[in-house]
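ASSEMBLY PREDICTION REQUEST
Request ID: AP-0331
Submitted by: J.K., bench scientist
Number of chains: two
Total residues: 1172
Priority: normal
Notes: Please return the full assembly, not individual chains.
Input sequences:
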Amino acid sequence: MKYEKPSSAMHSLIGRLEDFDRASGNRVERAIFNHRPWVILLCLLATLVLGWQAAGIGINASYEKTIPSKHPFVVNFLAERSELSGLGNALRIAVTAEQGDIFSADYLDTLARLNDEIYLLPGVDKPYMKSLWTPTTRWTAVTEDGLDGGTVIPGSYDGSAASLDEVRTNVARSGEIGQLVAANFKSSVIYVPLLEINPETGKALDAGEFSRRLEALRDKYQSEQVRIHITGFSKLIGDLIEGLLQVALFFVAAVAVTIAVLFWYTRCVRSTFAVVLCSLVGVLWQVGLLAAMGYELDPYSILVPFLVFAIGMSHGSQKMNGIMQDIGRGMLPWVAARLTFRRLFLAGLTALISDAVGFAVLMVIEIRVIQDLAITASIGVAVLILTNLVLLPVLLSYIGVSPKAAQRSLQAEQADSAGLARHPLWRLLDRFTTRRWAVAAVLLGLLLALVGKGIGSQLQIGDLDPGAPELRADSRYNRDVEFMNDNYAASSDIFVVMIRTPEDQCTRYATLSAVDQLAWRLEQLPGVESTNSMAALSKIATAGYNEGNFKWYELVPNDGALGAVQTRAPRELFNQGCSLLSLYVYLADHKAETLNRVVATSEAFIAEQQLPEVKFMLAAGSAGIEAATNIVVEKAMQEMLYWVYGAVILLCWVTFRSWRAVLAAILPLILTSILTEALMVGLGMGVKVATLPVIALGVGIGIDYALYVLSVILARMRAGDSLSEAYYRALLFTGKVVLLTGVTLAIAVATWAFSPIKFQADMGILLAFMFLMNMLGALILLPALAYFLLPQRAFGAKSEAPALPQPSGAS
Amino acid sequence: MIGNFSFTRALPLLFTALLLPGWATAQSAAVAQIPLLDQPALHSAKAQRSVLLALTRAGERLVAVGERGIILLSDDSGASWRQAQVPASVSLTSVQFADAEQGWAVGHLGVVLHSADGGETWNKQLDGVQAAQLALQSAQQGDDAKLLKAAEWLVADGPDKPFLDLYFSDIRHGYIVGAYGLILRTSDGGASWQAWMHQVDNPEGLNLYAIRALGDQLFIAGERGLLLRSSDGGQSFQALESPYEGSFFGLLASRSGGLLAYGLRGNAWWSSDRGDSWRQLDTGVESALAAGLELNDGRLLLASQSGELLLSGDGGAHFDHRRTREGATVAAVAQAADGSLTSVGLGGLSARQDIQAVARP
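STATUS: Completed
Returned structure:
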């Protein structure tokens, strides 16, 4: 091979340290490599300081951070929330009587003690807490004298059979069956609205801590007689945080797999150690920086440190491989490190900046947890520029690599130059630069894209199953959700329509009639279990005001009579000033299609509304907020892809200055994105706050591979090589590391499929798929596309100044 | 007692308000448009679990009526039900068929519906706005100043008053009664209606809850112990001396010629002499009695709103206490063609209850 000769000549020139021109290379390279002890020292200092910071990182997720604060639904909810009682983040704690029913003195006593302890927990929105024992739980009965009422557990309650009978009667007429009391009378619920800020600490309510306290109460009160079920956002977050130890163990396992494969490949302790060390240092710095900036990790961004590690491994391996090959060619470690830095720094920098920008564009999604994740991921990737593009080469320049390993790394190249057969895998991959194979690969890619798009079009927004998809179906949390769904008609999935009227006019007939109409329309929808509103209460109250005769059950068009109902109405149905009504819609689940139906029907109704001074507003309640989140996520999904691809395309163009090269790099990524969506459909995953960023992260990972392979191909072709030759060189240099890291990381994250936390398992499968697809895209589809997009003649005659540093072999 | 409001007690107040200029027009403008009067009832999967207020037989068929214009039909004694076509979406309070085809249902907002096909389809014969106009026209022809004032108020206040019961002696002749002493009658199957308040001895305008015939006499029961009788074929109604000061919600004329009036607080009174004297039955229940029925076997069945079923085989001397299935509340009961019991209430239908086996308390 003719280009080997100048290369060997160069080796002899710089084989010795004193022969190397210390003033060569650009300013950055000189700054780093001429002051190596300083670099090491600074990194050591940074590691110490940030490591100390990292130890203080908190883990939490506040409810309001997971909701889209700019969406009109949420804006309406937040604007009215002071007048909406307990409609935000809330827990439901069902206490089950294992023997007999809830009308026993023992049961009610246990319930009372649990109720009191929960009442005292910091962060509970006390006035709106509700259970059989709270004074807000009242019964109303129609009697011939009008409406009668009182607390469900009477003040005179003494645990006697007579007073238990009274409680039984009161429960029956409280209207709480299916809401606070199960229809089979074997359990009752303590409804616990939570504050966003813990008044004791002045900080966001710590879901993990709150959940631990609840578990302590569960342990304390759960017995042969009583079982306790707890559901709600903060409990879910608490359980996820509780599961973080297991999540972390799977991270450790993944890191171990990565180290093992890397060592198996290199057979060199020193270089493996250096790459892993630098990647871990990167993670440490990231976490330290986040802690220093006051950020917390949340269960949704917990994967990010691992992703940073993975990306670090990918870049680190490239550097390490380059240095190893140069050392194998006979250079000193210091020189090898410096030359590798020279050749790969720009490609690595571009890739990492693409990653960082790709993650940063997630900022456009107006949901705080995703914005936090964008910052978290961007910082992590930015840190890698220092640890894996700078610190790693410097480190390797000191410790070098094992000589045997260095020789091994060049086997293929040497075999090739010795005229021996190329490795069959490289020969196979090289075929994709030939016409027939390229056509086949591109057609196959196109076919996959079409099929993937078809399947991916069924991708649902939001949760697809009842319960929390982050946890396994048989997890305690989801079993508790199932219990609630089985025993309580009014689930925790509540959609609330808010109705603003002029002051003191909320009970006008026209208004209530409209509310009643909307309620009845919504009740027709599949997934809507029941509704409750001032209109519904007014109907039964009218019967009450007429000696309890059921025949008066109607919303009578008489404003005076309707106004009189106010005195008997619970606060959750209307506000103090009688200018805000709440229509409660109890849903069977929070599936996206259920929410969509409710929103569509409500919006159609609102559009028809002609009452001039009455404003129907969507939406509060857990399901209302979820509906808003789904709408934002759906929109964000498209926006996010435009931004991520926009950023990546721009950076690729800046690097390659060739739209053809940009296409060759981007098209495989798009295929991966499409197939990932199809896979999500296959796995039964919906797009939601937790899963939305994954596709963007996938693009970020994929662009690394494309940049490393394509930059070498372009450089070699600009130097005059054929596409086939250039690709073969790229395979031997960066391509094999792409293969290595792609497979390694895919295996590593695939182990997550066994995680007890379903969120991690799902992410593991998705990420493994994306690592593999991106690798295959870079090694198969990219050269095939290059066959069409980068014909020889585009480079042949030209000898323009290359945009990229030359690989070592070229002069 | 905490909240306490009654239309009756508010009446003097409203009359005072009527004297203020402008009140009447403002009110009528406010209630001029009530779309529910002309809004066809929605066919709903939840109809059987909706509030149902009355139940009757049209031949072999069971017909249940209730909130939002829901009318349900069953041709298999309650095993399966389907929803009829109804042109209004208001609560229907009572239903009666004069034969297997011709039937009427009355309800809130002064609605009267008619069916000529056994309940499959219904058309609206009257609503509260028209009823008030009829009352006004009728009062203007007479010279009773008080009646005229009440009629003017009826017009001004809009259709906020329900009809609560009806009685058709055949397919042409019938009466509808309701809140505030409303009573209208027809002699052409509902094609035209005459306000009949002026022929009824109800000076306080008490709510009329039930109207039934016993032989050739007509009886009306109502609020605050009101009992009325007509012995002239409905031309005029005279107040009877009442044994009870609480409200009566229903009347039952037995085949043996006895008359039963029942209502608040388990009150049930029996008259063997066509209303001249009354004897209290010991029902042993505290809640209001909503329905009374003479079963095929001659036994008497009373049902309380809270779901108690009282059976008596000896003309009300002793009652055997049962409960509806799952303790369902009761607004009305009927015996189906197969002898099983159907009840309706706030929770909807409870069909095919075995009268012998209905749950003991």
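REVIEWER COMMENTS: The CA atoms of residues 680 and 686 of chain A lie 7 Å apart.
SIGN-OFF: pending second reviewer
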